[in-house]
Specification:
By secondary structure, this protein is an alpha+beta fold. The chain contains three helices and seven strands; from the N terminus they run ββαααβββββ. It has one domain: Thiol Ester Dehydrase, Chain A (Roll), CATH 3.10.129.10. The strands form two sheets. It has a five-stranded antiparallel β-sheet with strand order 2-5-6-7-4, with helices on one face. A two-stranded parallel sheet has the order 1-3.
Length: about 140
Amino acid sequence: MTQARIEYEKLTAGYEFTPAEFQLDEEKVAAYLQAVDDNTRIYEENKVVPPMAVAALAMAALSTGLVLPDGTIHVSQDLEFNEMAVTGERLTSHARVNRKVERGKFHMLTIEINVTNQKNKKVITGETSFILPLS
């Protein structure tokens, strides 16, 4: 499913992004391990996906549906890893705006993220926050 892109200015608390699906294929896992310089064989040998690789793919899925202004800073993320993901699995990332607040010259945006597997079990839950410059 193609996700429609929305401008930051149009977001409101409670806005739900279109769920984004992604496949955890061996190529994506290998690319992640190479990017973080992880040479251990534990993930490949056990056919499991590093939890932060799932988080990175969920953030990438979110970024395809959101247009943020230049100067945006990713300030935090608080994630809970609930279920191990395995190579070959198809996951769905759900994202919802928790808060959108103006403070002086900046805006703060907090987005809730939930990633579920094919059995509808939560793999990741949490939120990520951004500071955005005033347009």
